[in-house]
Amino acid sequence: MWNLFCHCLLLHSFYLQFANAVRDESYVNELEELLHRLRLCPNTTDMLPSTPHAVIRCFVQLGKYDELLHILNDRLNYGVFLDDYCCGLLMDTFIKENNYTGWKRIRVDHFCKS
């Protein structure tokens, strides 16, 4: 239990810096795992509002759209929720990349909430 608590403190304090620093595709899996661990941490409510923005920007810059859509569809385990700005960013990116399947998934998930 103490090990988990220590991991949570480290994840909380360095997660945003790590998400902003990732520039190589080899770290995408680590970023996804780190995000999942942060969600399991008791301090997940202290996550900065800019953390999901950093994650989304990182995955978009690296072109990892399938992994990003997986994270966005599994809100319970990753805690990344789209706001209007990120939704617009993703929809614009998908349209420019001719990725209409990804665009449709973002549109349906964000605008067709019941």
Descriptors for this entry?
7 helices, disordered N terminus, mainly alpha, 114 residues
Short description:
With 114 residues, the chain is an all-alpha fold.
Description of the structure:
With 114 residues, the protein is an all-alpha fold. The chain has one domain (2-111). Helices cover 74% and strands 0% of the residues. It has helices at residues 2-21, 28-40, 50-62, 65-73, 75-78, 84-96, 100-111.
Helix-strand layout with pairing:
Elements: H1 2-21, H2 28-40, H3 50-62, H4 65-73, H5 75-78, H6 84-96, H7 100-111
Discrete helix count: 7
Strand count, sense and barrel status of the largest sheet are: none
Please give the share of residues in helix.
Answer: over 70%
Tell me, briefly, the overall form: globular
Number of domains: 1
Taken in chain order, the helices and strands follow as HHHHHHH
Overall mean pLDDT: 78
How many strands? 0
How large is the share of residues in beta strands? Answer: under 5%
